[in-house]
Structures are given as C-alpha cells and as structure tokens.
Design brief:
By secondary structure, the protein is mainly alpha-helical. Helix content is about 80%, strand content about 0%. It has three helices and no strands. Helix 1 runs antiparallel to helix 2.
Length: about 90
C-alpha cells in the first residue's frame, strides 16, 4: 500500500468511528432526554419532542472530534518513518 492509500484508509476509519459514535450517542442521549422529561412530567408542564437540532450538532461535533483525533497522530506518523518511530518508542 502506498502512503496515500494508508492515509485514506485511516481517515475513512476515523469517519466510520465518528458516525458510529454519533449514532449511538444520539440514541442514548435522546433516551436520557425522554427519561428526564418523564421524571419531571408532573412537576413541569413542558411538551417533549425529538431534539433534532441538538442531535445534529452532536453528530457533527462527534465526527469532527474523531477526525481531529485521527488526523493528528497520522500527521505525526507521516513526518517520520516507522522504524524511527519504533526506535523512539523504546
């Protein structure tokens, strides 16, 4: 594999992890939001609806965060060879 193919593979894997985290985070967050609404149903009279905007912001934030967390080590790796990186590690 060429260096460009490796970089593409790593970035695509980062995007996959970001989308995966965003989907699960949205599902869990929406469930918790409904649970809190259900607990306070008798105290506060507010109608609950799906938080589409908040879920969208959280999804974009998750993907961007994972891409940054993926791109930074990849950038450091491309600056040195694998053998040099292994020497520095030991």
């Amino acid at each position: 594999m060429t260096q460009r193919q490796v970089n593409k593979m790593i970035l695509l894997k980062g995007i996959f992890y970001g989308v995966y985290a965003a989907i699960y985070g949205s599902i869990i967050g929406t469930g918790l939001s409904f649970g809190v609404h259900y607990l306070f149903k008798g105290v506060v009279d507010i109608e609950w609806s799906l938080p589409w905007i908040n879920n969208g912001i959280a999804c974009v934030g998750a993907v961007v965060t994972v891409l940054i967390a993926t791109a930074w080590p990849m950038y450091r790796l491309t600056k040195s060879t694998i053998v040099d990186a292994l020497r520095k590690e030991n």
